[in-house]
Amino acid sequence: MTVFVNNSELIIFDGAKVIDVLRAYYRSIQLDFPEPAPAILDQFGNIIEMDGEVSNLKRMYTIESEVLNENEDYENF
Description:
This protein is of the alpha+beta class. It contains 2 helices and 5 strands, in the order ββαβββα. The protein has helices spanning 18-28, 65-70; strands spanning 2-5, 8-11, 39-42, 47-48, 59-63. The protein starts with a strand and ends in a 7-residue tail after the last helix.
């Protein structure tokens, strides 16, 4: 299936979880997976859990956890 992270298109296996998509995204941009893991938001600004299911053409956006913790009004970034 096709998903988008930070407007980058990724092809991922059916049944993938958000964490699988994040790992694939960081591999595609040739960076190590960060610790702590970034928060991931849907296109509406809602936080998606790492074990959440992913559907075809889903759009997600990463945000550093530190930024999210500093700004309690994170919705609709």
